[in-house]
Each structure stands twice: as C-alpha cells, then as structure tokens.
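Example: histidine kinase.
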Amino acid sequence: MHIHKPTSLQAKFLSGLAVACLTLGVLFAGGFYIHMRNVLEEEVRDKARLIFTHVDSIQNYVRQVLRPTMYEQLPDTFVIQAMSSSFVSRSVMSRLNNGPDGTIYRRVAIDARNPEYEANERELELIDYFRGHPESGIWRGYKNINGDRYYVMARPVRFVESCMYCHGEPADAPADLVRMYGNRGFGKEQDSIAGVDFVGLSVDGSVGRLQRTILTYFVFFTVGAVIFFSTTNLLFKVLVVNNLKRLTNVFRRNVADAEGSALLRKLEQGDEIEELVEGMEQMGEHLYEARSQLQLYAENLRGMVDQRTQALSREVEARRADVALFVSLLSDMRSSTSRADLWQLALPQICRRFRARRIAYVCTMASQNYFSWPENMGRPELPDDLVGVLTSGACVVLGNKAYIPVESSVGNAEGILCLFWDTDAEANTHDRAVLQALGRQLGTVAENMTAIDSLMRQMNVLQTIVEGITDPLALMDSNCAVLTVNEAARKLTAELTGGRRSDGNLLPLFFGAELDHCPMVDAIKRGTPDLREETLPCGRSFSLSMYPVRAKDGTTGRVVVYVRETTMEKRMMVQVRQSEKMATVGKLTAGLAHEINNPLGVILCYAELLRQNISDPQQGADLDVIVRHTRQAQRVLRDLLNFARPKAAGSGLADACAVAGSVTEVFSVQAMKKGVTLSLQCPSDLPRVRIGLNELEQVLGNLVINALDACPDADGEVLVRISPRSGGMIAIEVADNGPGILPDDMSHVFDPFFSTKETNAGTGLGLTVVYGMITDVGGTVEAGASAELGGALFTVLLPAEDGPETDGAA
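Written out as structure tokens, the predicted fold is:
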C-alpha cells in the first residue's frame, strides 16, 4: 500500500523560492522608489537653481548694462521697462507661470510698487523666516499650492545701496517713477528684507509618473516571477526529483523481503532527500558486511603483494643506481681533460655499480691502449671472436665475464669494456640491455671528448691570432651581436663610452643603434667588403673595414669588422701640408719683399725731397697721398718679411696671465668704443710658458683684434681664458660671439693672405704669423666654434716652463 507524502521536496523548494522572490521584489521596488524620489528631488532642485541663475543674469544685465546705457542716452528719464531690474526679471520670468509643467516664479515684497506682486500669506511667512534668520541665504521645502504639492525654493530680497535710489525717499527718486506709482514702494531701509524671490515646481505629476513606473516594474516582475517559477519547477523536477526517484527505486528493487518492505513504508513518510539518506545508511550497513568478507581475501593477498613490492624495490634501486652512474659519467666528462682522465674516473664507478671484481677497457683503434681497475691488473683477456662482438654491438656474457662494445653515435667501434665477476651466476644477474646502453653512453662521451679537445685547440689558435692583432677586431653576426672580439676592441669601446661598455661592439658608436641604418647590414646583403672613413663627434677619425664571411652554403651571415684610428695621421698630414705651404709662401714672399722694398724706399726718399722744394698746397697734398700709400706698402712688406723670416720665438719665458692682462687692458678702449665686453679668466699660480714676451704679445694681440673685428656692435663679447692642460701644456683660448668660421673656411684660416674681412681691412697675414710663432716653440694653434659664446674659438697650446722640452724651445 502506497502512503501519500505530506510534503514533497519540490513543494518545499518552490515555497521557499516564492518567499525569497517576493521579498527581493518588495525590496527592489522600495529601493527603486526611494532612488527615483531622490532623483526627482535633485531634478526639481537643480531646475529651481537654474531659474534663480537666470533671474540673477537678467538683473545683473539690467543693473550693469541697460541702466547705465539708458542714463547716458536719457539722463533725466527713467524707463521702467529697461531700467528696473525687478520689472524686467518679472516680465521675463513670468512666462514660466503659464507653462504645462506647473512652474511658478514670483518676486514679491511688502508694500510692493505693483499690487499684483504684493506678498501673500505664504510669502509673508517666508519673509518673516528670513528676517528671523538673517544668516540664511535660501529656503527649500514642500508646500501645497491650490491643492497641488510643490517643491519651493525661496531667497530673501535685500535692499542694497544701489536700490535706495528707487526705493528710498520719493524726493530722491526719479520723477517718472513717482508719477507712475505715487508713493508706493518707497521708504525702504538699506540692508532690510522686504521681499522674496519665490520659485515653485509642481511634483504631483512627477510623483504620479514615478508610481506608474513602479507599478509597471512590479507587473513585469510578477510576470517574470511566474515564468521563473515555471521554468525552475520543470528543471528541478527533471534534474533533481526524477534522479532522486531513480535512486530510491534502486533500493526498492534490491529489498524484497518483509523487513525491507517495512523499511520502505517508513522511508515514504518523508520527502525524497530523507528517503535517500535512509537508503544510504542501509547501503552503508551492506557495505560493512561486504568489507568483512573482503578483509579475509585481502589478508591472503598481502603476502603476494609484499613479495612483489620487494622485487620492484630491488629493480627501482638498480635503475636508480644506473641513473646515478650515467649522471656521474657526464660529470666526469666535464671535469676530464683527456680520454685517460675519463677512463681513470669512470672505471672504478662502473665496477662498484655492478659489484664486479675487476674491470678493463681496451681501445680497438690504432693505439691499442688499455686501462684497468684495480690498476695492478694486467691486460685483460679478450674473446676469441672479438670482431664479431664488436660488429654485433650487443653485450656478450661468457662465463663470469661480460664484454660490452663501446660505440660512437654513428656506430663505429671505439673499444671494448670488460667486466669480471667471481662466479657465472653473478655475471648473469645483470640486465644486458643496461650494459649495452652503458657501452653506447661511454662511446658517445669518448667521441665528445675528442671533438671538444679538437675544438678547444682550434679556439685557442684563433684567439691567439685575434689577440695578436693590435688594432680593434671583431666578428659579428647580422644582428650586430659580437661573436669574437680582441682586447684592443674592448679597450677602445670602454674609452669611447667613458667606461660604460667594454663589449667591443663599436658599430653603434659610429652608426647608432638602428640596424636599418647600419652599413654592415648592407655589406651582408651585397656580399662585398665595405671600406670607409668615419669621424666621431669628439673629433677622432677611424678607418672602418667590414668584410663579409661566406658560409659553406654560400650565405653571408657574419662580418669581420676591422677598425684603425687615423686621427694622428690626419693631423700629421695637415701639419705637413701647412708647413710645406708656409715654406713655399715664405720663400716667395721673402724674394718679393726684397725686390719691392728697395723701389719703395727710393719713392719715399724722392717724395720727401720734393716736399722741401714745392710751395703749392695741392702738390703738397698729392705728395702726402704718395707718402701715405708708400708707407702702407712698406708695412705690408714688413709683415711679409716677419712671416718669411720669423724671430726666434722660443728665446725666453713669459707669464701668460700678465701678458694677457696687458693686452686686454690695451684693447679695452677700442672694445669700449665698439660696445664690446672684453673679459679675462686666468687662475693664479700658473707656470710661465716657453715663448718670448714680445712674441706672445703679438700672438694675443692678433687674436684679440680678429675677435673684436668679428663681434657685433653694442652687444659684442670677447673672452680670453688661460688654463692648464695635461702633458705640461698651457691653453690660451680667445672666443667671441661673432658669426664664427664657416666650415669651408676652417682649413684655410692660417693660409697666407686669406681673410674674410672687407677689402683693405686686413692683409691676411696675422693668423699666418701666429701659426708660425706658435709652431716654432713646439705649440699648436687650432680654430673652431665656441660652444659658450657661439662664435669663433682659437685655442693656443704652449709648453709650460716645467713641462717637457721641445725642439722649438730655448
């Protein structure tokens, strides 16, 4: 007999789900309602603020623009439509009162000038509130107006000083205003509160829309809940209830006796879960009984399992020992330097692993060497069929001996490994496959030892050759990665990068880090060498050669980079060319000066004689022109002779700071007239320089004159700086802020007769004479650009008194 269940699991689940959904629906509806009311209140509050903002804009415009303009146009007339801020703001904002959204705007007062804007009872309450709370600037709240609920925002209207003209005494007010309204609206006191700005926004319509929205939401929620309940009921029945019934039916089918039927009737009093729990308990009792029966069988199996476990443990230990042996052999290969070292390390380990009495290795190659352990044992006995054992590649056990071929990775026989035990049984207990793998492993290790030894010898030879080259040399791949580099390249990289890098990769210093702009990549693509000259920003120049290296398959993926510094060579060539040029021009100018100087002396002598015998002023003036130009020609010839036969410039010592101070003082007047700032920077306690005093004055004078000529008028600047340099040298720098030296003119500034000045402004021999004097004492002079002032920079390096002796020094 089937007993009806009072409450099923499905009914309980759906009842709880319904209560949860109803509770969530009410909470969501209440929260949504509160949120929407807050949004509605914020909206009407912002709208009220906007209305007040519009009113303030209108009133400010009337007070600040319309009223002053009207007074300018009509001084004695008061036009209320344009000059009263209250009238204009009421006229504009009153249009809101007729809108469909129920907005009310009123600007009212006590004793209002227009009776329509007299404060009513509700507005009088607000005026009294602001009078009682003068610090309050605005009032917000809800009020019932004509049966509707309004959100109200009000603010007080204070009579400030500008309002008293129209609301003070009638005698002081505009006549048009008194004529229009009589005595209404006058008699107000300054800073008093006599009115309010009132804005009311109807909220009944919005609340109704909110209620309808909540109701619509609740209807949709109800429909969704019904659909959700139906779907959940179907899924719960299919996925849970039906599966639970299938489980309980299993118990019914397996319990057929009277005791089982009574149990089933008891189970049917609860729901499906209770029925399933009771069934699991009954199954547990059945399993307990089955366990008791299986325990007896397990005790019989334990002995067999222990035996098998011991056998597996021995096998695992053997495999672990094999792995440890192979790992040790690999470690011995890394630490060995020759095959003899390898066999001396490996044989004892192999012998102990397989518990052999003796072990030996015989090389079957041309050397026929053998190694044994213990070492006092002689050469081992080899099998009669040695060739067959070696060619078969398999481990052979003969009695108490095992012979294992040692083969390379390609199958070539390197030798044979011999193991000896005390009995034949001990020899047959070991796995032959493991012994055969051991022979192959030893053959591979020996082969690798030979290859590594050959490779190391080749690498040593190559490294010796590369390091023997004194110039920087590097082997690089197509990604600008350094493969091999010598010490010279490392030193140059560290020198050019200030110690930041020492990897020997010089290409980024010449061409940047972008591979697309690296000529090495182009050389690889072309497959032809790339030879070029490169100059770094620091002024050092290098000869750069890139030679692509072809592989066996014809591809080019590597480049040999060879670098040679040519800075000193270029400087020496420039000095040689300059010296040759100076010598040639000197000989030419000496001859020309000697040949021309004599006729000029005769011309000057006869001109002076003629001056003594003439009385005509015009003829005297003509003679003055002849004498002046003759003396000018003699000065040019004197400069030529000074250049062609310079004096011994190194015939003394001079204080560079004192000479520079004297020269700057002499030319300070000329600099002041031109508006040029002439300054000197010189440290104290500098040693004297190896050059004559007069010669140093002439050098500094020429350089300062050129700098003053190059400076612009009124804002020019010339800087003379003296500082010590390394190598026992003293540097004299003369810089200006003029236009500088053009790059094309840089190599000609010391040439004779070369000048960038205007015609008849210079002979072009000043810098030439300076160059000759400085080089005679073993110094140098260079022209460049001044990074500090932006113009030209001339740097003179002279040997110091306590510096190294030079050929030109006295």
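The domain at 647-799 is CATH 3.30.565.10 (Heat Shock Protein 90).
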